[in-house]
């Protein structure tokens, strides 16, 4: 089991570093859904790894990081739903 948890933590670290590098290089927007998904996924897997190995400060940090990720993802999804609804309301009715 510990090998699996180590792999999860390693993947999480790589995902977080990849997301950071993509945003820092301008190849990805920090306001976009892909970055937020990578950010949440990386933090969540690092939280699992840290908790398993009783690294509580790191687990706590990644718990908060994941929480921020969930909150931000929720805001992005709500914003997209609002934009779609407003676009549908503004569109002319068929046949007019």
Automatic annotation (TrEMBL):
<keyword id="KW-1133">Transmembrane helix</keyword>
<dbReference type="Pfam" id="PF26604">
    <property type="entry name" value="CBU_0592"/>
</dbReference>
<keyword id="KW-0472">Membrane</keyword>
<protein>
    <recommendedName>
        <fullName>CBU-0592-like domain-containing protein</fullName>
    </recommendedName>
</protein>
<keyword id="KW-0812">Transmembrane</keyword>
<feature type="transmembrane region" description="Helical">
    <location>
        <begin position="59"/>
        <end position="78"/>
    </location>
</feature>
<feature type="domain" description="CBU-0592-like">
    <location>
        <begin position="6"/>
        <end position="80"/>
    </location>
</feature>
<dbReference type="InterPro" id="IPR058058">
    <property type="entry name" value="CBU_0592-like"/>
</dbReference>
<feature type="transmembrane region" description="Helical">
    <location>
        <begin position="35"/>
        <end position="53"/>
    </location>
</feature>
<feature type="transmembrane region" description="Helical">
    <location>
        <begin position="6"/>
        <end position="23"/>
    </location>
</feature>
